Amino acid sequence: MNDLSNYNVSVFEGIKHINEYGQEFWYARELQVALEYSQWRRFNDAISRAMEACINSGAEVSDHFAEVGKIVEAGATHKTIIDYQLTRYACYLIVMNGDPRKEVIALGQSYFAIKTRQQELIDNYDELSEDQKRLAIRAEMKRHNAMLADAAHNAGVIEPLDYAIFQNYGYQGLYGGLKSGDIRKRKGLKPKDDILDHMGSTELAANLFRATQTEEKLRRENVQGKQNANRTHYEVGKKVRQTIKDLGGTMPEDLPTPEKSIKQLEKEQKKALKSKDN
Fold this sequence. Notes:
It is built from twelve helices and four strands, in the order H-E-E-H-H-H-E-E-H-H-H-H-H-H-H-H. By secondary structure, the chain is an alpha+beta fold. The chain has two domains: 4-105, no CATH class; 122-268, no CATH class. Helix 3 packs across helix 5. It is globular, with a radius of gyration of 21 Å.
């Protein structure tokens, strides 16, 4: 299991199905085996937690977890057992709620993570232009940054300076030790420029994943204290960085900086809408 990215592809791609409409899906019973769960009962617990997370995200459970019956041999007779057809998002939620002691769970997280976040932002994500993707992810980032700030506040990160330090820990984990000031320098930005406004869609997606997973971890584990919150943010950022590495992706600090900022794109969008109305 030396090549993690190949292992991910061979295991999880190998059990992927395509329906008559060209949509990908996975069977829960097959995913159970891939994730090395010997008992359906224990795996079903992870599915239940994933369904709850799906509800909390505002998505419809039935859109991602379609219950189906499967006939299996039971001695001389046959019986019907419960199975689910799962979307990529459902698989992502399952591995995020699986047994963290299993190495294969971490591999599953690597496989399903970032691509899921990109695709679930908007139904026709793959059809958008790069600028449209940037605008979509940046809007999602603003919403999740507010949720992250609230979770950090609950953990004891109260003062603005403390929150700036907390954010830097996340960047250091994701950017291999670089702080926000270091990232600005690499991008040729001014001290007051918002880093997120000068990222491409891939870099934004990685930061969105960092923010959402840190917020969920802070709440799920009821992290308390500034130092613990900072450590959590750093560890999540580092894990996202490892995920990118496992998938053979480019490290975020090595990604190109777009010529236009998000603010410029938003101005152009408003101008275009005005012209259309007139």
